Structures are given as C-alpha cells and as structure tokens.
Amino acid sequence: MNFQKSLLSAVLALVLGGVLTMVVSSGTVLSLLTQAIIYAVFALGVGVLLKQNGMVSFGHALFFGGASYLVGIVLQLQLMSAELAILAALAVVTLAAFLIGLVIVRVPGVAFGMLTLAIGQMFFLTASRARGLTGGADGMNIDWPSRLFGFPLSQMLKPASMFLICWSTLVVVMFLLAWLMRTRFGGITEAVRDNEERARFIGITTLWPRAAVYALSALVTSVAGVLSALNTGFVSPESLHWSLSGVALMMVVVGGFKALWGPAAGAVVYFLFKDILGEHATHWMTIFGVALITVIVFSPTGVAGLFDRWVLGKKPSVKVGGH
Amino acid sequence: MLTINLFNGLVYGALLIVMCSGLALIYGLRRVVNFAHGSLYMLGAYLGYSISLHSNFWVALVAAPAIMALLGVLLDRYGFRLLQDRDPLTVVLVTFGLLLVIEDLVQSYWGKSNLSVPVPEALAFSINLLGTPVPAYRLSVIFIGAAVALGLSLWLRFSKVGLFVRAASTDPVTTSMQGVNTDLLSAGVVGLGTALAGLAGVVAAPFLSLSPAMSADVIIDSFVVVVIGGLGSLAGAFIAALVLGMVQAIGAVYLPDAAVLLPFVFMIAILIWKPSGFAGSRT
C-alpha cells in the first residue's frame, strides 16, 4: 500500500467513524464500541512488537495501566495541567520501556516473554500494595479538569464524542504506524527480526532498533491507557494485571498479527464475544483461556489469516514469532 | 534479627529450588516454558489443603504431588506431545491459556479468601540456631530443597534414565534413534516437573497463606530465577534461587516498601552483566 492509498483509507475510516455515530443512536452500543476501540489501540501495541520484532510480550498491561496511573497521580498531586500530564505520561512510559527494553530484548525468545510477565506482575503487586499514592487494591479516581484541550469535559464524555475521539485516535495511530513501517526504521527492524546475525553483518546495530520497537509498542499501548483513563475516570490494579496482558495478547492472536489491522479486528471480535456471553459469564478467565488455546492451536494466523486465505486466496504461512 | 532473615531467605530459596527445578526439567526436555507452572504450584497447595483437612499433612505431602504428577503426564501426552512440531511460542501461548483456566477454576472451587494450613504437630517446635530460635518446620523446608537439588543432580548424573534425560535434552532425535522412547521419557519428566510444582505448593502452604495471588507471587520469582540462572540449566537455577531468596530476605529488612521490586532490580543488574544468565542460555 503506498502513501496516498493509506492516507485515503485513513480519511475514509475517519468519515466512516463519523457516519457510525450518526447511524448508531444507542449510547450503550457506542460505549461498548468505544471500549472495543480502546482495547484495539492496546492490542495494536502488542501486535506491533510481535510483527516488527517477533517478540511476544506477556506484560503489556504495565504500559496500559501505567499510563493511566501516571495521569491519575500527576493530576492528584496537581503537578501540571491535564494536557501536559497526558504528554508526560506518554513520554515517561516510552522512556521507561526503552530503558527496560535495552536490557530485556537481549534475552532471546521465550525468556523475553517470561521477563515481560515478571516485570508486569511486579508492578501490579506494587500498585496493589502501595496504598498511599495509588489507593492500593481499590484503585483511584482520576480528577480530570472541567476543560481538556479547550473542550468541556462533559461534552467529551458523551458516548458519541467519546467514540469519535477513540476512533480517530485508532485511525491516526494506525496510519502513523503504517507510515513508520515503510521508513528506513521499519526496514531495519524487519531485517533484525528476520535474521539478527545477518543484520549485524551488514552493519546494523541490532540492540537499538529492538529496544526502539519495544518502546514504540509501549507508547501505542500507553495511548490506550490514557484513553481508558479519560473514558472511565478511574484506574485500579486490574489494569496492570497479567490477565489483561493475556486478553490483549489473545486479541492479537485472534485477529492475527501479520496485518497491522489484525489486532484491532481481534479486539472487536473479543468484545462482541464478551457481549454475547453477557454478564452471567462468571468464568470468563476459563472461557478466554480455552478460546486462546483453541485459536492458537487451530488457526495460528487468526482472523487476518482467514481473511487472507478465504478472501484474497493467499497461501497460509504458519509461524508465530520470528526466530 | 539478621540471622532470622538470612534463614528465611534460605527457606524461600529452597522453595524456589523445588519450583524452578520443575520448570528447568520441562524446559530441558520439551523446550517449553510452562507459564502455568505457578498455577500448578497453587493447585498443588490447594489440593494439599483439602487432603490435609480430610486426613493429615503427611498424607497430603505424598498424595498431592502424586495427583499433580498424573496431571503432568496427561499434560504432556495430550498437550506438549501433540504440539511438539509447532513453534515454541505457540506452546507458550497454550500454557498461558492453561494458566488462566487453572486460576479461574481454583478460585471458583476454593474461593478468593485466604486459607491456611497449620504446621504439622511433629514439627511445631523451635530449634536454637546460632542463638536464634527458628521454627523446625522451616528448617525442614530447607532440607527438602536440598534433598530435591541433590537428588535430581545425582539422578541426572549417575542413573541410566538420567543419562537418557540428558541425552534427550541435548538432541531428542538422535536419542530416539538410539532406541530411547523419548515420548515416554518426556511424559515422565513433565510428570516429575509438575509433581515438583505440587510439592512446592504443599510445602509452602503452612508458612505462606493460600490465596489466589500465591501463583503470581511465586511465578515472578521463578521466572527471574530460571532466566538469570540460564534457561534449562538446573545448577544455574539452584544458585539463582538461593541468591534471590537472600536478596528478598535482606530487602524485606532494609527496604520493606520496595521488596516487591527487588527481584526486578536484581534481574536487571544480572542481565546487564550477563545477558544469557549464570550458566549461559540454551535457547
């Protein structure tokens, strides 16, 4: 896809979002869609890491919940304006991820996944036990000011406008990622993913690009964290928990990670599935666990893979990760 | 004060040894990192709790690991063996799915509240160690950890089956060509590894309380231990387990607020120094 084409699809997607808010009048449906879109951004972050780096993160909830917590804490301490707080949260998460990445991307394959899980869970436990700043296991409310970026907050929180904000963010993030993947940076990261040794032979330092992709994926996920903080006005350790990392991973697996839009599709499928199951599904962890196993065993390329096979008639290439 | 904390570090290190030897064994033979290992530990602990309610702790100490061994054999036969030609990450994701299922089932069967198992009466006394009284039960946990470490090392080094295990860990195809039934071997080893997770659970129950969070606590430390020890290396894991146990114990005294984050700091420090762990990674 060339630049004009992806710009065109981005504009079309934005228009589609606008049309959707006019067609769908039910606030509940829009709220559900909004949630799905926020998680689509979250999953997009996990997907980028897998797609560009061949690495599976089991701890991305850290960046999702972490961004929400950072915004919440900064607003609670009244350190700066809400707009700056959002930017600061994104910057801090990205920088932290880059520094952590510099250390843990050197660990190959599965061990990397183990470390992401361990790190994520450590911060979950820290947040649940630190009562003073984060409210511990009860979570904390986020004191948004009455105006954000010049718009009144009460207007922004209406289902239709909230949906539009999240939808536009998703489209913009996807567009920027698609653009970034076509730059030299995208090429280098793919070379490193496919064969790190050969990439080194042709003079590429492999550590920096890997850490950069890790930071990039954290940044995308932290955008979702900020959106979630805005949407719910609340954050609890639940949004740092490994089951959430698992859900995001499942969206990526269900949607398929080869296509950029795969994880987003997975998020929508996930929320439809969850809605059909309804409130009476108390055993959601079991259901998702079984669903994850089923999908990974029987259709490792996910929805995007099925789409490729059935609609575009492509041959399946079954391989998760790249090492 | 410091003696008792070093002692507790040793106790926790011994528990981690039992946990991590199971992880390392399974990884060695199946090249699978079992993300559900912590959940199996939790399942073992809760099984031990139920069994000791009906009979006593000593029955639980034998029966719970035995049940877990059976589960492990089934896991290998109907899980790992069917997936052995797939990408390692596929299998990891399957064990992650399994983790979610076990966590949920344990929570819904035994509930979310904390449960406790009393220390068995025969060990409910204190021993004077360098002038500090220490609970005999905890001392016996150290012995169990040492026995597991020593037993596994001797078994792998000197027995015929141990030789097969080492051979299959290095090259499963050649090993099976030499007439070793590697499928049977793997089932046995995964069974043993799972039983060790169960054993760790039963042993931990009297001094750590049973809660749905217990698997998360232990899996963090186990993963850190296995990675910094060098994936698949038993000796590396033993050393890392003891060191991490000590770091935790000393941290609990001097930095109580940051105790949870200490393994993180420790891990980062080790990985900057040696990216493939103490014993060199075999991935």
Characterization of the model:
The complex is a heterodimer of chains A (323) and B (283). Chain A has helices at residues 3-23, 27-53, 61-77, 82-104, 109-129, 131-134, 153-156, 159-182, 184-194, 196-201, 207-232, 242-255, 262-277, 284-298, 302-310; strands spanning 140-141, 147-148, 151-152, 234-235. Chain A is an all-alpha fold and 323 residues long. In chain A, helix 3 packs across helix 11 (207-232) and helix 4 runs antiparallel to helix 11 (207-232). Chain B has 283 residues and is an all-alpha fold. Chain B has eleven helices and two strands. Chain B has helices spanning 2-30, 37-54, 57-80, 88-110, 136-158, 160-170, 172-177, 182-204, 214-229, 234-254, 262-273; strands at residues 126-129, 132-135. Classes of the chains: A mainly alpha (323), B mainly alpha (283). Chains A and B meet through helix 4, helix 5, helix 12 and helix 14 of A and helix 4, helix 9 and helix 11 of B.
Summarize this entry quickly.
Chain A has 15 helices and four strands. By secondary structure, chain A is mostly helical.
CATH architecture label of chain B: Orthogonal Bundle
Number of strands of chain B: 2
Report the major sheet of chain B: 2 strands, antiparallel
The SS-based structural class of chain A is mainly alpha
Estimated radius of gyration of chain A = 19 Å
Radius of gyration of chain B: 18 Å
**Apparent shape of chain A:** globular
Question: Secondary-structure map with pairings?
Answer:
The complex is a heterodimer of chains A (323) and B (283).
Chain A: H1 3-23, H2 27-53, H3 61-77, H4 82-104, H5 109-129, H6 131-134, E1 140-141, E2 147-148, E3 151-152, H7 153-156, H8 159-182, H9 184-194, H10 196-201, H11 207-232, E4 234-235, H12 242-255, H13 262-277, H14 284-298, H15 302-310
Antiparallel strand pairs in A: 1-4, 2-3
Helix pairs in contact in A: 1-8, 2-8, 2-11, 2-12, 2-13, 3-4, 3-11, 4-11, 12-13, 12-14, 12-15
Chain B: H1 2-30, H2 37-54, H3 57-80, H4 88-110, E1 126-129, E2 132-135, H5 136-158, H6 160-170, H7 172-177, H8 182-204, H9 214-229, H10 234-254, H11 262-273
Antiparallel strand pairs in B: 1-2
Helix pairs in contact in B: 1-5, 1-8, 1-9, 1-10, 2-3, 2-4, 2-8, 2-9, 3-8, 5-6, 6-8, 9-10, 9-11
